[in-house]
Amino acid sequence: MAVAAEHVFEPDQAWWQRLFAAIDARDAAAFVEYLTPDAQFRFGNAPTVIGSEAIRAAAAGFFAAIAACRHRVLRTWTDSESATVACEGTVTYTRHDGSAVSVPFANVFELRGEKIAAYRIYIDNSPLFGAAS
Hints:
Blueprint: H1 13-24, H2 28-32, E1 35-43, E2 49-50, H3 52-64, E3 68-79, E4 84-94, E5 100-112, E6 115-123, H4 126-129
Parallel strand pairs: 1-6
Antiparallel strand pairs: 1-2, 3-4, 4-5, 5-6
């Protein structure tokens, strides 16, 4: 007898737009609503932060360091077998002095239901904190 495959949530374009709208609004509380309570979050080469409250605090700290951000998602992928989704895009950060810098990023999420249990951002955002050009 065949066993039915477990349904894996596959985010649609609207889900991706809502997630990045919360981030672009610099709304740490709305951002963590997409995460499981025990989520793991790694931003670039920073240490992994665990738990939605610690992630909220880390995100709020980062959001305070910038004046604005705007993400443009170019592609998304879903691996239904492993409940993993990924996206690639460009983020434009606006510094507090009004200057802006754009850098490419890729994110990989491990999902648990419709929530993100592991959120990994692959980015080199060192230009953000370098001298404005």
